[in-house]
Amino acid sequence: MTIHSVVIQKLLTTNAHIGRQVATHHFKQFTYGFRNRQAIIDSDKTLICLRSALNFLSYLSRDPSSSFLFINTNPLFQPIVDEMTTRVSSLSPERASSLWKLRGFLTNSFSPKKFRSRHKKLVFAPTKMPDCVVIFDTERKSSVFLEAERLGIPIVALVDSSMPWEYYRKVTYPIPANDSVQFVYLVCNMITKCLMLEKKKKDGAKGIGTKATTEDKVESAGESEGTASDEVLVVPYDSLVPLSDDIAESKQLLDKLVVVKFNGASGKSMGFGGPKSLMEVKNGSTPLDLIVNQIQLLNSKYGCNIPLFLMNSSSTHNDILKVLEKYSSSEIDIHPFEQGEQTQLESIFGEGGEDEWQSSNHGDQFLSLMNGATLDVLLSQGKEYALVVNPDNVASVVDPKILNHLAQNSIEYCSEVMPTTSTGLINFMASSLQGKFKLEDFTSDHTQKFVKGFKFIDTRNLWLDLKAIKRLVGTTALSLNSLSNSKIFEKSVGISIPHSRFLPLNSTSDLLLLQSDLYSFNEGILVRNDERVSPSDPHIDLGPEFEKINEFKRRFTTIPSIVKLDSLEVAGDVWFGADVVLKGNVIIDANPGLPLRIPDGAVLEDEEINSPADI
């Protein structure tokens, strides 16, 4: 039995999956459907949200001066909460005096008062503001939601399928589940273990020697100098609130978006005689087809107008113009232009529409565009946000969910980032893939040999607030070529996206991954095969014999099945037959000067092949 199965069974025993008889529209993302007139909550999504909440609490607990406010109004939960708060207080004496514990409801934090209640009693610690509020009984709709929102205090809360939107939207880290006594006990136990683990890590680090102590002093001194500006807050994609079911409201939001895609990259290094965005990826579709299909479907579904602006280089512009003829009947405004054609750009933007941008090394060209009258025209047309798409990323998504998050939280700068390694369920409580991270934890080089030592990859997909660009454009500080520039914006975040949302096309090894049975297309979006167990993609390294596309096509009769593949290394004069299946770790290294053909229907699992005799 896998660890995942064990954890899911543990959740099922707490009845966390049994929801109410109704499911609000914003909660449907967490449900499977209904059974016996009761909403069934997806336990996998409960785990994901629980992990995110625990990661956040663990991050806060690293500061010894941090404090938490645990709120509960259900007498059935009170002994459990009491035990947890006692153990949490004992972990750090300096935190005991600032730990908040509430039995009842939250009132004015700065001037606590005494209240009488028939069944409740109210206990306040000192009036220091908490760093986080944890709510176990959200059904009571406590005024703490409103107060915490006004004070800017993040909320971690158990939410059920009937929770109204006006309360749900105030929760920073929702945990979708039935608030049974068993599940509350499980959550409290996990919170305690997380905080104990953080304390153990800290004690271990301080025990290393003088160097650790000196680093602690430097870090402490640096906090007073505002080192927080060198940190990036990373928010998990699964915690984002979905787009409203109200078509009119969604249309109003999407009409504020503009999309920009760069097409300056050539496929010459892969033996392709045109722009990389016109290279066939799968079933006759190109990267340009995918982005056009996505925008067209959004325009059709919501009745909005999201235009696509294509920034071409002088070497790719004519090829792009020829291909655009096939989109003439589509419901999308496509505006191609050569980089540097400022006059043409201003006339195009003046027609209105939505703009999408890419966070690539083409940031300078984008800013030169904004230095003219183009930005003023966009703002006058009601455009407020831009998505800048990485030209190499075939899996880029025009995602209304991210746009909605920006609008609701007044975010000016958002970069899509991806964890360099996947975190298993066995250590999800201690995972560090949530919270604030230093800039040195990020890299823009996604190749395997360069990601070691980093926690995130900057995918170079960038969402921007046009009003913030207007405020900053023309200043010497403004640049979009690096994540470090996010600190000049008033509010910036990174969205942690899954591995399936970042698939660069830079070599035939990448092309093999995209053309395999591991991925399929649905409405212009790459969808991973459900049979793939590992959250990360297999590592593929094809030798120089496969470097050019023509040779790549010749050497594969059909693309092998790689759903269960972990890694593949191919070197030498190797030829693949039809319907080959690759599993585990496979190395194929043909002897020098001798061709090696993998026969039709061969199944290779954890093998090293050097000659036909090895097959």
Automatic annotation (TrEMBL):
The lineage of its organism: Eukaryota, Viridiplantae, Streptophyta, Embryophyta, Tracheophyta. Keywords: Nucleotidyltransferase, Ribonucleoprotein, Ribosomal protein, Transferase. Transmembrane segments: none annotated. GO terms for cellular component: ribonucleoprotein complex; ribosome. Coiled coil: none annotated. It holds the Pfam family Ribosomal_S2. Its EC number is 2.7.7.9. It comes from the Eukaryota. GO terms for biological process: translation; UDP-alpha-D-glucose metabolic process. Belongs to the UDPGP type 1 family. Belongs to the universal ribosomal protein uS2 family. This is UTP--glucose-1-phosphate uridylyltransferase. It catalyses: alpha-D-glucose 1-phosphate + UTP + H(+) = UDP-alpha-D-glucose + diphosphate. GO terms for molecular function: structural constituent of ribosome; UTP:glucose-1-phosphate uridylyltransferase activity. PROSITE patterns: RIBOSOMAL_S2_1.
